[in-house]
Amino acid sequence: AWCPLSPTGAQTTQLLVEPPWTPAVLWDQVTLTCQGWGTAGATTWYKDGKWWGQQGPDRIRVTESGIYTCDRPGAGLSRPLRVVNDWLVLQVPAWALLEGDMVTLRCRG
């Protein structure tokens, strides 16, 4: 798995979303994958800043709206990812964009 280096040189945890759009919406059947250095299967999940499951799978299917993060031992906490249950949403690609990149926006409802 690809894991970028943080400014201090330590491995960081990445929270990936499928389908790869943000904000993620429940009616897309969202799957989150926690990637990072550390023991596979030792992922701790958080929802809305509270413990949501420990030493669980590295990949989960989301069934509730909220703000999700994950933690891998030795790699740290991921950036938060918001999952919504709105009836109308404007989405952008979930991957990093650079100035000058062409961006596709999705307005869905």
From TrEMBL:
UniProt feature coiled coil, ranges: none
Record GO cellular component, one term: external side of plasma membrane
InterPro entries reported for this sequence: Ig-like_dom, Ig-like_dom_sf, Ig-like_fold, Ig_Fc_receptor
Gene3D superfamilies assigned to the protein according to its UniProt record, in alphabetical order: Immunoglobulins
Keyword Lipid biosynthesis found: no
GO terms classed as biological process: cell surface receptor signaling pathway; immune response
Keywords for the protein's UniProt record, in alphabetical order: Disulfide bond, Signal
Superkingdom to which the source organism belongs: Eukaryota
Molecular function GO labels: transmembrane signaling receptor activity
Domain Ig-like: 7-70
Family annotation (PROSITE patterns): IG_LIKE
Official protein name in the record: FCGR2 protein
Record organism: Vireo altiloquus
Gene from which this protein is expressed: Fcgr2_0
